[in-house]
């Protein structure tokens, strides 16, 4: 078993081991050193959320940024 703090570290670690991992497909699509296959079972997705401090809730610049981030995902 291998534990890493972020998916990106996992990608480089996998290339030099015989381990397998489940990572977001977009991270490995263009990596010729790895073999990418669909999982044999359905894997539930995950929910994305934005969090911010209450004092930033009404800040126009913060509202603008949150709106653009929400539109981009």
Describe this structure in words.
The protein is mostly helical and 73 residues long. It has one domain (7-39, 46-72). Helix content is 29%, strand content 0%. It is built from two helices and no strands. 1% of the residues are buried.
Average pLDDT score: 86
How would the global form be characterised?
elongated
Please give the largest β-sheet: none
Number of strands: 0
Q: List the secondary-structure elements in sequence, H or E.
A: HH
Measured as a percent range, the helix fraction is 25-40%
Uncertain stretches: none
End-to-end CA span: 32 Å
Count of DSSP-assigned helices = 2
Number of domains: 1
Structural class computed from helices and strand pairing: mainly alpha
Radius of gyration: 18 Å
| Content of β-strand | under 5%
Family: Belongs to the LysR transcriptional regulatory family.
Protein name: LysR substrate-binding domain-containing protein
Pfam family, one: LysR_substrate
Keywords: DNA-binding, Transcription, Transcription regulation
